[in-house]
Amino acid sequence: MSGSGAPGPGAAPCRFAHYFVLCGIDAESGLEPDELAVLYKWLEADLHGKNSDTADKTSGENFDQSPLRRTFKSKVLAHYPQNIEWNPFDQDAVNMLCMPKGLSFRTQADNRDPQLHSFIITREDGSRTYGFVLTFYEEVTSKQICTAMQTLYQMHNAEQYSSVCASSSCSMDSLASSIDEGDATSLAKLQRYNSYDISRDTLYVSKCICLITPLPFMQACKKFLIQLYKAVTSQQPPPLPLESYIHNILYEVPLPPPGRSLKFYGVYEPIICQRPGPNELPLSDYPLREVFELLGLENLVQVFTCVLLEMQILLYSQDYQRLMTVAEGITTLLFPFQWQHVYVPILPASLLHFLDAPVPYLMGLQSKEGTDRSKLELPQEANLCFVDIDNHFIELPEEFPQFPNKLEFIQEISEVLLQFGIPPEGNLHCSNSATKLKNLVLSDLVNDKKNGNIPSNAFNMYELLKGNETIARLQALAKRTGVTMEKMTITAPLVEKDKDGKLPCEEVELRDYKLNVQLREVFANRFTQMFADYEAFVIQAAPDMESWLTNREQMQNFDKASFLSDQPEPYLPFLSHFIETQMFATFIDNKIISQWEEKDPFLRVFDSRIEKIRLYNVRAPALRTSNYQKCSTLKEAAQSIEQRLMKIDHTAIHPHLLDMKIGQGKYEQGFFPKLQSDVLATGPTNNNRWASRSTTAQRRKDRLRQHSEHIGLDNDLREKYMQEARSLGKNLRQPKLSDLSPAVIAQTNWKFVEGLLKECRMKTKRMLVEKMGHEAVELGHGEANITGLEENTLIASLCDLLERIWSHGLQVKQGKSALWSHLLQYQEREEKQEHSAESPVAVGTERRKSDTGITLPTLRVSLIQDMRHVQNMSEIKTDVGRARAWIRLSLEKKLLSQHLKQLLSNQALAKKLYKRYAFLRCEEEREQFLYHLLSLNAVDYFCFTSVFTTIMIPYRSVIIPIKKLSNAITTSNPWICVSGELGDTGVMQIPKNHLEMTFECQNLGKLTTVQIGHDNSGLLAKWLVDCVMVRNEITGHTYKFPCGRWLGKGVDDGSLERILIGELVSSTSDEELGKQCRTPPQQKSPTTARRLSITSLTGKNTKPNAGQIQEGIGEAVNNIVKHFHKPEKERGSLTILLCGENGLVAALEQVFHHGFKSARIFHKNVFIWDFIEKAVAYFETSDQIGDNEEALLLQRSSCKTFCHYVNAINTAPRNIGKDGKFQILVCLGTRDHLLSQWIPLLAECPPITRMYEENALLRDRMTVNSLIRVLQTLQDFNIILEGSLIKGVDV
């Protein structure tokens, strides 16, 4: 059935063209309205929620439109050969893409210039076929069709007339007055242009010729089709019948081998094409010049970034070829990555429902004349990049990171553009006349070059340019400077004169090729620099292909965290998003598969480039700087193309006469002949010079196949695995263009629903693994923090996924965020119900009880309340922003799944908003989706608090005293100051006789410390505080600041203020909270080690032994070292590591307490600080005697600083107790790297013998030396202390 004459099974894939196709009107079936267009109208009516019956009643013959403007059904009239097995002919898809609007009719009064466009068909496995189409107009000879058109016009005019009468409400006055205003002329004009009279007018209908090829040789196919068209329209018949040329290109022209050029023959002139070598960038024949002219450099880089981040990209233009050129141009620049999602550069009208696809896509939509962007109803815009090509305008998604080194990158590209005389801002920024020129001439002249056969157009261009201000200014300037500029050679590239046999048009083409390759080199060089050491982070875990494919989903194949920690800071926002994309995942998959299979061609070229960089750049660390390195291979790249085009490597067989029946191949000017199918159905049986080459390749493939079967993995199964592995996360590569029954549409939607669910599973799992991984590693650290950056990326992609789920299957779109508009409608309904019946929502009046009976009231869980919090944030200006803030808040409160479940529980609303096939109305999938989201409650996120840093937040604080031993309320005036990572509240007086207060201040971030104190006035001044609780009233995060010490003169260590270190309380049930509020057991509170006065309370008075104490010091120092080895954004709170439960201060206290002589002397407490003061007194009075001068000087300066620090702490204007002073001393000593100098001084001073027993750690020389060594490891770090720790101490 296929080209049966084709030699050997492998020969055919090496053919230049696979099919030649002819589409047009089928004279037998006559005028049929385009059913697909009807379906489209029905879908559109459905989209706007109109009644679909009304849309359908005229069966597609839309009477508002004049018959010449309507779409009629086109048909594939012929295609040769009938079929080839490796690329089966898809009739519906080809018909739809050759004539995306169906047939169009014209009369002699209309413009009938031929148009060129191309298209692409992507098969299920991601492989592509290209089509190149020339559409021209042919006179209609069938009497029947002409009469049908006349009849349609009569019906149309009658309809129009009656509607005009109806609209003017038959009042003659109004009709007359409207005619007076000159409407009559325009009406007459309209009728003249939009009418058809069989006796007066000639009717023309569109027809197209198309080549379908395996590779995008756009220039060559364009020339071949243009020459074919010229042969049909020229007065002399072509040298040979057209069959000869078509047979030649189908069967006798091979693909040029990689790295070579090939010459073959069209009807009138030879055509040259070339193919890049194995180490060059892959073939791309679409002129990037046009892409840059159409979009402008700045816009192009922004769209390019959106494509890299896999957003939804919609291109919009009247011209199909522009859509194709921009889509192909941008995807070409992605090298070494490849777009992995839906790719439909020309979306036929009948497939508009695909814009509803809840997946990343790159689609092109043809704009109708006279419609502007505002008329376009798009299902979802939260993540859409809209590119209006004709108007040089783009709409970007709200927040996305910029491409690294964007400015230098743009600078480098514009240098390349300027060398070729292309303005970087694109070519549409000219005056009106130039834009007019563009629209008139660009599509014809620039795209087709017309080969100069219509001189009037060239003249037209000059005429138009005369009116151009810029040209006029240039001319004036030239005159002033004495340069003569009479002859303007504007038309040069369009004229087909040859001086020495070389066509100027080839010059233009060569320049385009050179520009293409140089621009692509600049883009490729960026990725080579950015990912130069990607290989080091690829995780090669599987022993063989089979095990890798079966466990692909569970395995991590790229060490993202290490890769990011290695990158320059400015790159991180972009890279952290980019390495989450499907195109990056596929790139890494290909790298892993290349161990067992032949390398993917893109990967092979990329890897060889990285090798080259390594050879030149011996100093590898240079790769990690953010210094911009320009591309250095521009010249070579352009030269290799130029050489190929100048020196032709291969020439194909000339077209020749075929063995045709007599009398066929008749020539009639202006009509494409009926081709003789038997000679075109099969190729020649012999003389195939390029068969042997490919048959050997085929033999090699067969050998490989047998080999893999021997290995024991069934080939079909393996192929299935490969497909699954490659399509992981890609839901649907390509819409089926051929069959558009409702069943197929439903099935497509079902694929989307499954895909969304899978994506949700993957994303939530990834967010969990990331967090859990970090938390597991850091359990000893009191708090876990995945890279803020990576967390942000994952949350942003979760927000994006939710937006896509909410916009799938929407009935009517309102606002840019589908999720927020659903929430608003829900809020409106709930608030109505609340007003009608003040419903008893779980207000949670019961309070958190502690044993003291003092409590934090329970926060009410309310979806509406969380919405109001977001609505009150004046910083957020858009719906998309509000939806994202609400998702972040719900995630931080661990309520996302619960809130969404509540939102979806209103089924009446869901039915009103969503079509039956929408994801949110698929019960089972929706339940699974909520379950996946529920799993995120296992980890703590601060994604709201850490992002909205400037908002005002209400806080509530409660002080919980220990009532058994002290009065609940003090008579003195208590105060409190709360500090967090982003700032503090300042000192706030607590209202008299109150233990609870609420206050509002700018977001403090995660809370770290609370300072609490009082002024010691009144009779009951002594106060025993158990803890302070503080809660963020928006996010519900509750922090506990344990104290367990007295505040008051003459009790405990005499402190009137204390610094308490916070810990986040997990949101557990109320009675557990009560338990937590009692004095915590020994290891819980950071201050317990110093609770010498109230040990009887805890009941535990077990002293740690010397080994445990030394271990504690090692652990505390180690945690600080680890803290500084993390990237800055990942570090937790240093305050906790210094003063927290297992912090450095507590560990050193244990050292100083060990062997401390009886804590009570004459019923008076003795504290470490008493020992410190005695030491200071000794240092200040005595002169030390040292062995040598140098040691003495060093010792003296250490003593001096020590005394200075202690005195500064003692004289500070703060009522801090003795233990608090010790804490400040340790913090300052750590900050200024002095601890290791002070410890030996204290260990040597005489007071130690009076105050410490013989076996104390501080009196053991070996222990002291090891302690000094451990503390010296902190010398390298720049330690910055939180303000609250050392407030008022001036050293």
UniProtKB/TrEMBL annotation:
<feature type="region of interest" description="Disordered">
    <location>
        <begin position="831"/>
        <end position="850"/>
    </location>
</feature>
<dbReference type="GO" id="GO:0016020">
    <property type="term" value="C:membrane"/>
</dbReference>
<dbReference type="InterPro" id="IPR001194">
    <property type="entry name" value="cDENN_dom"/>
</dbReference>
<dbReference type="InterPro" id="IPR036392">
    <property type="entry name" value="PLAT/LH2_dom_sf"/>
</dbReference>
<dbReference type="Pfam" id="PF02141">
    <property type="entry name" value="DENN"/>
</dbReference>
<dbReference type="InterPro" id="IPR043153">
    <property type="entry name" value="DENN_C"/>
</dbReference>
<feature type="domain" description="RUN">
    <location>
        <begin position="789"/>
        <end position="949"/>
    </location>
</feature>
<dbReference type="InterPro" id="IPR001024">
    <property type="entry name" value="PLAT/LH2_dom"/>
</dbReference>
<dbReference type="InterPro" id="IPR004012">
    <property type="entry name" value="Run_dom"/>
</dbReference>
<dbReference type="Pfam" id="PF03456">
    <property type="entry name" value="uDENN"/>
</dbReference>
<dbReference type="InterPro" id="IPR037213">
    <property type="entry name" value="Run_dom_sf"/>
</dbReference>
<dbReference type="InterPro" id="IPR047277">
    <property type="entry name" value="PLAT_RAB6IP1"/>
</dbReference>
<dbReference type="InterPro" id="IPR047278">
    <property type="entry name" value="DEN5A/B"/>
</dbReference>
<dbReference type="InterPro" id="IPR005113">
    <property type="entry name" value="uDENN_dom"/>
</dbReference>
<dbReference type="GO" id="GO:0031267">
    <property type="term" value="F:small GTPase binding"/>
</dbReference>
<dbReference type="Pfam" id="PF01477">
    <property type="entry name" value="PLAT"/>
</dbReference>
<feature type="domain" description="PLAT">
    <location>
        <begin position="953"/>
        <end position="1061"/>
    </location>
</feature>
<keyword id="KW-0677">Repeat</keyword>
<feature type="compositionally biased region" description="Polar residues">
    <location>
        <begin position="683"/>
        <end position="697"/>
    </location>
</feature>
<feature type="domain" description="RUN">
    <location>
        <begin position="1135"/>
        <end position="1284"/>
    </location>
</feature>
<dbReference type="Pfam" id="PF02759">
    <property type="entry name" value="RUN"/>
</dbReference>
<dbReference type="InterPro" id="IPR047293">
    <property type="entry name" value="RUN1_DENND5B"/>
</dbReference>
<dbReference type="InterPro" id="IPR037516">
    <property type="entry name" value="Tripartite_DENN"/>
</dbReference>
<feature type="domain" description="UDENN">
    <location>
        <begin position="56"/>
        <end position="598"/>
    </location>
</feature>
<dbReference type="Pfam" id="PF03455">
    <property type="entry name" value="dDENN"/>
</dbReference>
<keyword id="KW-0597">Phosphoprotein</keyword>
<protein>
    <submittedName>
        <fullName>DENN domain containing 5B</fullName>
    </submittedName>
</protein>
<dbReference type="GO" id="GO:0005085">
    <property type="term" value="F:guanyl-nucleotide exchange factor activity"/>
</dbReference>
<dbReference type="InterPro" id="IPR047292">
    <property type="entry name" value="RUN2_DENND5B"/>
</dbReference>
<keyword id="KW-0472">Membrane</keyword>
<dbReference type="InterPro" id="IPR005112">
    <property type="entry name" value="dDENN_dom"/>
</dbReference>
<keyword id="KW-0344">Guanine-nucleotide releasing factor</keyword>
<feature type="region of interest" description="Disordered">
    <location>
        <begin position="683"/>
        <end position="705"/>
    </location>
</feature>
<comment type="similarity">
    <text>Belongs to the RAB6IP1 family.</text>
</comment>
